[in-house]
Specification:
CATH class of the largest domain: Alpha Beta
Strand content: 5-15%
Number of domains: 2
Protein name: Glyoxylate/succinic semialdehyde reductase 1
Structural class: alpha/beta
Pfam families: NAD_binding_11, NAD_binding_2
CATH architecture of the largest domain: 3-Layer(aba) Sandwich
Mean pLDDT: 97
Shape: globular
Radius of gyration: 20 Å
GO molecular function: glyoxylate reductase (NADPH) activity; NAD binding; NADP binding
CATH superfamily of the largest domain: NAD(P)-binding Rossmann-like Domain
Helix content: 40-55%
Catalytic activity: 4-hydroxybutanoate + NADP(+) = succinate semialdehyde + NADPH + H(+); glycolate + NADP(+) = glyoxylate + NADPH + H(+)
Low-confidence stretches: none
Number of helices: 12
Bound molecules: NADPH dihydro-nicotinamide-adenine-dinucleotide phosphate, ligand LL5AMS7Z
Number of strands: 9
Organism: Psophocarpus tetragonolobus
CATH topology of the largest domain: Rossmann fold
Order of helices and strands: EHEHEHEHEHEEHEHEHHHHH
């Protein structure tokens, strides 16, 4: 199966390499061209523009940062739309339902096929082919994409009409963003009240609120180490989009709103490119001792 791949950030690079390792022919494009080099070393071809990639490949996957990037790659000059007639486009970026619908309608109007398929799971699951795929849109395209999804993920869901995949992803990340803030406050409270936060991690891990995220992020947060797996700026984007979904549906979400404020504060502190767990830094007391 020959696929195009647009967007070689943390996730896109890992996913495209995985496809190559499993025998897919992959043609890549990235806005910053130099990021294609490692993929070429792994056997990929390079397309000069999104349009070139779509022209060459029957299926093109995209993994881009946010709604503005997703729209730009489709609608701008040399974009996906130019050669989409008869071709399939699978957008795995985390965006809102409106963005996904705009892309879907434009692609279908030009005779193409569209599936949204955002993923749950971060850098390591992407490297290990253990993502959770939340697809919606063209059911026939979903079935055709399953060989690729089986390489990229451990489980795929088909959620019906375009927008449902985007909404599911935002709900999941809204919960995750709220949880990391509660966790961060707990670690800080333990430390400041004289407890060993390492012992807190052990206690949490044995109880009903044990979970993979606490296990993974707890030790690194205690070391103030935030090498980006999931960049904080993207988590804040997801909180913003989830809160907008809450607005549309008149769902009061005070916990998520507070978490969003913490991520905004972290961004204002220049932490946007670090891991989302760097939100922990917003609770640190400035040192005025010197
Ligand atoms: N990291 C994670 O753990 C997870 C991320 N996601 C989602 O996946 C998507 C990608 O995340 P991730 O790989 O971490 O992000 P990165 O920031 O590492 O990569 C973003 C990608 O988008 C490209 N891009 C940004 N703006 C534009 C633009 N205007 N035009 C064209 N390309 C653009 C970047 O290109 P360039 O290299 O030129 O900057 C890069 O390829 C996001 O929607 C994120 O929310 C979902 C699950 C997990
Ligand atoms: O979107 C991030 C993730 O970990 O899932």
């Amino acid at each position: 199966m020959e696929v195009g791949f647009l967007g070689l950030g943390i996730m896109g690079k890992a996913m495209a390499i995985n496809l190559l390792r499993h025998g897919f022919k992959v043609t890549v494009w990235n806005r910053t061209l130099s990021k294609c080099e490692e993929l070429v070393q792994n056997g990929a071809s390079v397309g000069e523009t999104p349009a070139t990639v779509v022209k060459k490949c029957k299926y093109t996957i995209a993994m881009l940062s946010d709604p503005s990037a997703a729209l730009s790659v489709v609608f701008d000059k040399n974009g996906v739309l130019e050669h989409i007639n008869g071709k399939a486009y699978i957008d795995m970026s985390t965006v809102d339902a409106d963005t996904s619908s705009k892309i879907s309608e434009a692609i279908k109007a030009k005779g193409g096929y569209f599936l949204e398929a955002p993923v749950s799971g971060s850098k390591k699951p992407a490297e290990d082919g253990q993502l959770i795929i939340l697809a919606a849109g063209d059911k026939a395209l979903y079935e055709e994409a399953l060989p690729a999804f089986d390489v990229l993920g451990k489980k795929s869901f088909f959620l019906g009409e375009v927008g449902n995949g985007a909404k599911m992803k935002l709900v999941v990340n809204m919960i995750m963003g709220s949880m990391i803030n509660a966790f961060s406050e707990g670690l800080t409270l333990a430390e400041r009240s004289g407890l060993n936060p390492g012992t807190l991690l052990d206690v949490l891990d044995l109880g009903a609120i044990s979970n993979g995220m606490f296990k993974l992020k707890g030790p690194t947060m205690l070391q103030n180490s935030y090498s980006p797996a999931f960049p904080l700026k993207h988590q804040q984007k997801d909180m913003r989009l989830a809160l907008a979904l809450g607005d549309e549906n008149a769902v009061s979400m005070p916990v998520a709103a507070a978490a969003n404020e913490a991520f905004k504060k972290a961004r204002s502190m220049g932490l946007g490119d670090l891991d989302f767990s760097a939100v922990h830094e917003t609770l640190k007391v400035p040192d005025h001792s010197s």
